[in-house]
Design a protein that fits this description.
heterodimer, A: 326 residues, alpha+beta, five-stranded antiparallel β-sheet, four-stranded antiparallel β-sheet, 29% helix, globular, B: 760 residues, seven-stranded mixed β-sheet, six-stranded mixed β-sheet, 25% helix, 25% strand
Chain lengths: 326, 760
Amino acid sequence: MKPFEYLKPSTLTQAIDIGRQPDGMFVAGATTTLDLMKYHVWQPNKLIDITGLPLRGISFKNSVLTLSALETMTAAAYHPAVMQHFRVISQSLLLAASQQIRNVATIGGNLLQRTRCPYYRDTSFRCNRRNPGSGCDAVLGANRNHAILGTSDQCIATHASDLCVALVALDAQVVIQGVAGERVVPLTQLYRLPGAAPEREYALLPGELITAVRVSASAATRSSTYLKVRDRNSYAFALSSAAVGLDVKRGVVKQAHVALGGVGTVPWKATLAETYLLGKPATREHFTEAARLAVTGAIPQKDNAFKIELVQRIIVQALDETATSR
Amino acid sequence: MSIPSTDKPTRPLVGQAINRITGPVKVTGQARYTGEQTWANLVHGVLVGSTIAKGKVTGLDIQAAEAVPGVIGVMTHRNRPPVTAQPPPTQGGGGGTVVLPLSDTRIHYAGQPVALVLADTLENATYAASLVRVQYRAEAANTELSKGRVRAQPVEESKRRGNADAALATAPVRIDATYYLPIEHHNPIEPSGTVAIWEGDQLTVYEPTQWMKGLQQALSRSFNVPNENVHILTSYIGGAFGCKAFTWPHTLLAVAAARLVGRPVKLINTREHEYVAHGYRPEIVQHYQLGADPEGKLLALKVEVHASTAETDDFFTPQLIGMPAMFFSCPNVLAQGYTVPLDYGMPTAMRAPGEVEATFALSSVMDELAVKIGRDPLALHLLNYAEKDEDHNLPWSSKELRACYQVGAEQFDWSKRNHATSSMQDGRLRVGWGMGISAYPTHLSPSMAKVRYLADGQVLVQAATQDLGTEIYTIIAQVTADTLGIPLAQVSVELGDSSLPASVSTGGSRATASVLPAVLATARTLVQQLIALANTDPTGPLFGLKKDQLKGVNGRVVSIADPNKSDAYTELLKRCRLPYLEAFGEHLPPGMGATERSELMAGSRPSIGPEISGHISYAYGAVFVEVKIDPFVGQLHVTRVVGAYDGGRIINRKTADSQIRGGIIMGIGMACTEKTVTDHRLNRFVNNNLADYHIPVQADVPHMEVHFVDSIDKIVGPLGSKAVGELGINGVAGAICNAVYHATGKRIRSLPITPEKLFV
C-alpha cells in the first residue's frame, strides 16, 4: 500500500479538525479500509484512527436504542435490549461477515461499508465510483451479484451491508458530528443513489463523523425478521435479503417495516410495500402483493434477473415468518 | 466412525488411529512454512500481472516504481537472466506451462507476469508494483467454452468396445444428458511461493512443492547448473490439491531475480495472483448417452467430453474418458474427449482430475436411469457391477465396492428411502437422499529411504518426499516403529529435503503406497544389519549363532530357539561403540528396475498404475447424502454424508478418515458453492479472493461418517494400500444432485447448485 501518516486523535474536535483536510481518512475497525488500501483503491495520505474517541456504549432509554459508532458488531448483536426489542438488528448482524470480522468491525464503519463490486476493488478495471468518468465495467461484466434497484448507467454496485438494511427498515436515525455541531438525520438520507455521480456515496461533509445510530422500539421492531439468501451458509454477502417488522393486531397490519439488501445500490427502503400493508389483513396474499410493490422499478442486469423473483420470495417468507412467530 | 484412543496403542501400529506426530509443532506455530523463512539481506518480490488476456505489451514504465525508497530493481523481459523453458507435464516434463515468464512482450493470458518489483520490504515492493505502468495492444480473445467449441480438437486416445451407436439406437431405455462444470481453483490456505538463494552456482530453494525431486530437476535444467547444485527444502505444506505439483512461472522468476540482484529473493504469491499462478480445474462439459434394458442393465454408454485448455498447450485428463470405460459393466462403450483452446493460462491437475468430473456425471446419469425406470439407484449400481476391468479385459487387483455399497447404505439407512420424488419433508423443508460413486486408480512410483538407529534408541527415517499436511510423517513412523519393534515416540521422520534419499511426488494419491514399502524394506534391512552385528560381536550373548537362528523382536535381536537369549539394539550399539547403525533401502514397483531407479534419482517420475502386474487396481467408495431444501427461496443444506471406502489397507484410520472428510467437504464445495467467475468480455477472473470464491465454511459442513471396509490388496505391494487422498471428493457432487432431485424433482446438471437453480 501507499505509505501514509497514521494519526490517533483523542478528542472529537481534534478528529474532525484533521478529518476536514482533503487527504485524510477516518478508520475504526479497518476491516474494509485495510483491504481497499492494500488494493490501492484508497490511498489516503493520512489515516485517522478514531478508536481513541469516546464513542462507545449501547443504551436503551425511553424506548430508544442508541448504538455508539465504535461499538463492535458482536457487542451490538448480543446486547440484551437489541435481542429483545430489535430482533431484526441482531439477526442481520449475526448473519453478516464472520465472527472474527464482527469482533472488530464497528457500527459506524458498517454504515459506510463499501461495495463488494469486483470492478471497484481492482484498480485495473474501469469504475465510475472509484475513478469518476472512467466508465463501468460491471454493466457489461459479470454482474450476477449486482443491484436491480437504484442503479444508473454509471453504476450498478450493491450496497453490501446487512445491518443497514435492518436499520433502514426500522427508520433509524444517524447522529453526525461536524464542524458546525451535531445533526441527526434519517439513515436513508445518508445514502445517495449513484445517478450521474456514483463517487459521492454518502451525504457527509468533510470532517463529519458518525457518532451513533438511534432506533425507536415498537411492537413492529420486536416482531421482526432478517432473512438472507446467499451462496454459502456463512461468510457470504447477500444475494438478496429482507428486513421486516410487523405490528399485527387482530389479524390486521398496524405498522410495517420492509427493507431489502443485496438488490439495491443503497440499503433499499421498500416504502410502497410498507404503505400498502397498513390496514391490510396479514395474509400471504397481501404479503405477495407487498413484495411485488417492493420491486417496483427493478431493472435486471445481464446475469441477475433472478433477483427480482428471489427477493420477492424472501420478502413474503420474512413477512410470513414474522406474522406467525409471535 | 468412532476413533479409538491413541493413548496406549498396541501392536501393530499400522491400521490404528494414531494422532499426527507433527500436530504439536503445527498448533504451537513452530512448524515453519516457506513464507516464514527469513534470510540475511533478503529481497522481497511482488509481481505485476497483465490486465489483458491476449496481445502485446507496448509500453512499460518502471520509473515511478524504481523511485520508491527501498526498491532494488524491477525485472522485466528486458533484463531477466536466461531461463530455459521446461516441457510441461503433457510433454513429459515438470514445467506447469510452456509460457516462460518475462521472455518477450507477448501476452497469452490475463495475470501473466509482466514485471517483478524487488525491494527491501514486502510493503515497499507492493507499493512500487502498483506504480508500474503498462501499455498493451489488446487482441480479440475468447474464454467462453461454447464459442471455442468450433475449434475443439479430438484427444488422440479414445475408449471403444462393442458398438455403442448401434446399441444405443436399439436400446429400449435411453438417457441423454449433458453435465456442465465451471472452472474451479485449488485455493490451498498456504499460497505458493519461493525463497531462492544463490551462493555461486549453488542454489537453495524453499518452496511448498508436491514434487521436490521434480523441482530440483526443473531448476537445474532451467538455470543450467548440475542437479546436485540445487537444494530444495519443503518442511511443511499448507495444502496443495495439485497446484503445487509442477514448476510454475513464479518459481522461475524468484530464482532468476535472485541471480539478477545477487541477493536472496522471496516471492510469495498474493491471494489474487494465486488464481493465475498455477493452473485450475478446466471447464468441462460431459455429454452422456445411456442405453439400457427395461430392468436397467446397461447396453450402451456413449460419452463425449469437452474440456477447456490454454491456447498455448493441450491439457486433458485422460480419466474423463477412462472412468466411464471402467466403472460399470457394459458391452458397448464409446468415450471421446476434445480439448477446447481458450485464452487462459494453463489448467492443471486438481484433486481427482478427471475422476471427480466423471464420477459426478456417472453418479448423476445412473440416477437419471433409475428414475426413468422407477428403480432404486443402488439396485442399478449392483446390477451393473463390473466384475473385471472390461476396458483392459483384466482382473481387478482387489475390489470391495460391493461391501462399500452395503456398509454405506446400512449406516445411512438407505432402505428407508421412499424413492418417489418430493416424498420426504421436514416441516417446510424438502428432504432428499442421493447416492454417488467413487473410484481412484492406484499409482505407484519407486522410492528410497534411510533409517538410522542411534545408540540411545532414537530412530531417524529420511526420504526426499514431502508432506502436504495429510501427515505422511506419522504413517512412516508407524511402519518404522512396527518393523523395529519400538515405541512410536522413539521415531523421528525427516522429509522435505532434496538431498535425502530420492522419493516420490505427492500427487495421484501415490505417496502411501509408494513410500511405505521403501520404509518397510529399509527398516527390515536395518534389522538384518543389527542381527549381523549381534552374531559377530564376540562379547555379545548371541555370538556365533547363525543369522537364520535370530530375529528382531521389540527392539532386540532374539534367538528363535531360546527367546530368553537376546540382545537389545541399544546395548549392542553401545558395546560395539557405534554411535548409530543405518540402512539405505528402496522399493521398486512391479516391473521397475535400474532405469526407473535412475530416473527417480534424476527427478523424473517413473510411475505405473492402474495396470499393475496384469491387474487393474482402483480404490473405491460409495457415498450417501441427505439434503434439506427450502424450495421457496432455493436454499440448500447438505445435512448428512455417509461414505464407505475401499482404499486397500488403511495405515492410520485417523489421518485417512481426515483425508476422506476433506475430500467430502471439497465435493460439497464443488456441488454447492465453488465456481471461478470469468468476465468473458475482459477475459479475466473476477472472484479471485476467498471472500468471493466460496469454498465451504464450517456452516456448510454437515455430520459426516466415514467407514473403511476390510481390504488388503495383495497385488499392489507389501502393505496392500491403494489410494485414499483423492477418493473422498468423488461422487459427492453427484450424490448431492441426486438428493436434490429426490427432494424437489429438479435435475441439476450444471454446478454449482446456486439458489436461483432451486426455485420451485
